[in-house]
Amino acid sequence: MLSLSLIFVLAGAFSCGMVYSFQWETQPDPVVYSCNGKQVTFPWSFKTQSQERVVDIHWIFDSEWGSQMVATMAHDNFLPTAPYGKRVRHVTNGGLLLRDVTTEDSGNLTIEVNVDTDGSFHSHQDSVFLQVGDGLMTQDHTLKASQDPVALWDNSTQRWTIRLTCGHFLFRGQPPVKVAWTNPELGTLPSSGYDNGDFYLTLRTPVAGGNYTCQVPPYLLSDVCVDDNNNSNNNKNAVIASVFVDELKARLSLVEAEQKTPRTPYETSETSCQSCKALEAADEELKKENEQLKEDLDSLKQTHEKDVDILSKSINDSRLMFEQELQSVRQAFRDELQSLWNKTEQHSLSGPCAFGSHTVLDSSQRSVDYGDGSLCDKNLAVGWYRFLLNGADAVIPTTCVAKNHCGTDAPLWLDLQGGVLPAVGTEKAARACAHWSNKCCHWESPVTVRNCGSFVVYRLTPFSHCSLAYCTEPRNN
User: Fold this and answer.
1) What is the per-residue burial (b if ≥16 Cβ within 10 Å, else e) of 268-279?
2) Among 35, 69, 274, 430, which one is least packed by beta carbons within 10 Å?
3) Residues 239, 226: contact at Cβ < 8 Å?
4) What is the CATH code for 4-133?
5) CATH class of the domain comprising 137-250
6) Does the pTM exceed 0.85?
7) Each residue of 64-82: pLDDT tens digit?
8) How far apart are CA 300 and CA 308, in angstroms?
9) What residues form the membrane-spanning segments (predicted)?
10) What are the pLDDT digits (tens) for 203-254?
11) Closest Cα to residue 351, out of 306, 315, 395, 383?
12) Residue 138: DSSP 8-state
């Protein structure tokens, strides 16, 4: 049996020299990031011309443990393999949705579209790397900050600089997040750049000593696979780190770097000697100044230790007062939000949303993950309906569902015709489409959708024949 890579080579060689009208319309980024337990979509889509016929589509996963088939599409039938049967779903004409990802899903995912053009067979492929994180996406799930051991040359400013780094991230390429820096004066600074797993900050000269911190902003925690709701005091080090910069050592490091800078060949020996003597004199002067500064600092520490204690207590008292005021503001905001939500719920539960004004249908066979069956909604009366899946709120899917699913032959899905579900307390017109005979909307019927806030109801007009039934999927609040 030929390997998958050899098949790709032969297919490319077979099509060499020929011009095809096959085009990719949308393709995922080269690297897609996700977190453990989440779902990720690979939005592949393509278009062909009338003389081109799609024979089949394959999705193949490659990791360090080998290759395996994820799913196949042939004769309009989407067939996932056993390991992916309950986790993968077909979207668009080439896209996939993968649920409940784990770190074992990290690897390359390749789509192969095989097309027959007037008797000539050719293949088109595209690949994406999926990286799945479990906890903070760093080497040991903690954020670390440090100072480079020596001064670095900055080509943009043509000067030696002191650089701080933060991260040890494991992302392939540029991370989908940023870190924020705080200087000793509590001013906020952006990162100067990103290099090989670390965000870095180039300090201005003269260097200001003190404590520098870096952190992932709260609104970006989910992008590095940190659950902000569970970010207790025990793991705050996972999102914040600090480094202390010794001002005197930093300035000496810059002086040493300047002294070691190679001179140009255009300098004469006399000029070099004069420069050398000037640097030595400057170095001695700096050493004397540093010694005097150290003595002054020790004297200031002894003189003002009591003042520092008083200031520290004042800062702590102010911080506690601020935290109490912040907690009060947060509680007031929660109360106001709950009041607005209660008003919205009261408004949305009128009319067809009110209990008793609609019929509840709860059947696990209606799930998009359920195969063929004998469900038929021919005998449903015209009226308002709410759907449940095993007691949990569900909605009619808004994308085409494969045939012989949802416990019926021709599954019914909701076509919003490019729109979205209505806002809470409002309704809009749509249509129910039945997937049959290679058409996602072979039969259609008018539907009215109303958003009741915590659930959705539909005014349905049943079809007059079997076997057609409405599909459902869990509602993502």
Assistant:
1) eeeeeeeeeeee
2) 274
3) yes
4) 2.60.40.10
5) mainly beta
6) no
7) 888 999 999 998 899 999 9
8) 11
9) none
10) 988 899 999 999 988 888 888 888 755 544 344 445 899 999 999 888 888 8
11) 383
12) B
